From TrEMBL:
<feature type="domain" description="Cytosol aminopeptidase">
    <location>
        <begin position="17"/>
        <end position="168"/>
    </location>
</feature>
<dbReference type="GO" id="GO:0005737">
    <property type="term" value="C:cytoplasm"/>
</dbReference>
<dbReference type="Pfam" id="PF00883">
    <property type="entry name" value="Peptidase_M17"/>
</dbReference>
<dbReference type="InterPro" id="IPR000819">
    <property type="entry name" value="Peptidase_M17_C"/>
</dbReference>
<keyword id="KW-0645">Protease</keyword>
<comment type="similarity">
    <text>Belongs to the peptidase M17 family.</text>
</comment>
<dbReference type="GO" id="GO:0070006">
    <property type="term" value="F:metalloaminopeptidase activity"/>
</dbReference>
<protein>
    <recommendedName>
        <fullName>Cytosol aminopeptidase domain-containing protein</fullName>
    </recommendedName>
</protein>
<keyword id="KW-0031">Aminopeptidase</keyword>
<keyword id="KW-0378">Hydrolase</keyword>
<dbReference type="GO" id="GO:0030145">
    <property type="term" value="F:manganese ion binding"/>
</dbReference>
<dbReference type="GO" id="GO:0006508">
    <property type="term" value="P:proteolysis"/>
</dbReference>
<dbReference type="InterPro" id="IPR011356">
    <property type="entry name" value="Leucine_aapep/pepB"/>
</dbReference>
Amino acid sequence: AEAAFVPLNAGAEGTKLARDLVNMPPNDLYPASFAEKCRELGQYGVQVEVLGEAELAKLGMNSMLGVGQGSVKESQLGVMKWMGGAEGEDPVILIGKGVCFDTGGISLKPGPGMEDMRGDMGGAAAVTGAIRALAERKAKVNVIGLVGLVENMPDGDAIRPGDILKSAS
């Protein structure tokens, strides 16, 4: 009977991870610390790669870099792979938005509710939690999770309304 709870427990642990990420204060959860949470999934057999700004620029990820260019925190892309399915089987791709804190950049958002702007990384938290759940339960599926991790902050280098960026798409 206990074996029946293994997949349920894995799902619960993934959900708790996502919940905890969303509720972390922005001084504790920023692109590099979120990327470290992704790396911790290696203990479950997840292959994790984190790309920094230089690698993102080479890939033409200028829209993502534009959002983060006003922050002193380096933008990063977390790539998490759980390959529990058949070799050669196409993976499911999960993509999560990871704006760890969103002030609105130059177009500053109003003060009331600003403390809740850490929630713009909820998509990345959900993807990270899902990858953990699948890996912990040893799911027979190939999944790749991508989380773009940035902060949108006001600064002299922040993206401006009307700027034109060449993106990878």
